[in-house]
Amino acid sequence: MTGPAGERHSLPYTANLSILFTELPLLERAQAARAAGFTKVEYWWPFESADPSGADVDRFARSVEQAGVQLTGLNFYAGDMAAGERGLVSWVGREAEFATSLTVALGLAERLGCRSFNALYGNRIDGVAPSEQDDLARTHLAAAAKAAEGIGAQLVLEPLSGTPAYPLKTAADAVAVLDELGLDNVRLLADLYHLAVNGDDLDTVIARYTPRTGHVQIADAPGRHQPGTGELDLEGHLEKLQAAGYAGPVGVEYKPDGSTVDSLAWLPYERRGN
């Protein structure tokens, strides 16, 4: 399928503002994304703790509202990402933090219209049996999915690269969890960069798992920079995803090689928004 600028697909894009526009403070990024042409944005957890103040939550929400962009995705609190933590879904002993961040995320979603939550699974923990972590993950995911269903939202489960202790590395790893849950609103987050780096064949993933996919994100590999800096045929893969039935947004989630604005040369201005 050919998009309006002659691209091989017409899927909409959403700018991930936890990795793009980091030249600016987080609360200024939505406005910068809008100025660059984006009308949809997504974030990782945008606060320093699982329990931000009401004032901090309001400031974040107003930064999105005042920019006039749609919030399409939000991560639950994932712990200290800079220190290598990758989610609390399976983290025994941090259940209260997960529950608190779920409440905050749901409130933001109701205010801003977000209907997709990334529930990072969490690393394996020394001294805790993997089976105990997986039991907790199922409990957390089921509870969060029920809460999300109340506002018509979904959860997505993401395989990650670069973190050996994180157990979901391939699409099949995540889909196995989805199969155990059996819930329609818990789906795969297919980050084409992470999947490729971990050895998944992207064409096979698309052919097999597009019906289970709730969100897609992109960066080129190797390097995790903008499309065209690596070896992935991202346009081709997105074309195949759309042909296989995926119709949601594509998260632009790369580390810009250069300034964010300069790094967007691959994406025509008229393809960044609605």
From TrEMBL:
GO molecular function annotation: hydroxypyruvate isomerase activity
Keyword GTP-binding: no
Xylose isomerase-like TIM barrel domain mapped to chain residues: 31-267
Family: Belongs to the hyi family.
Active-site annotation: 158, 253
Keywords annotated in UniProt: Isomerase
Pfam families: AP_endonuc_2 (PF01261)
GO biological process, one term: glyoxylate metabolic process
Protein name according to UniProt: TIM barrel protein
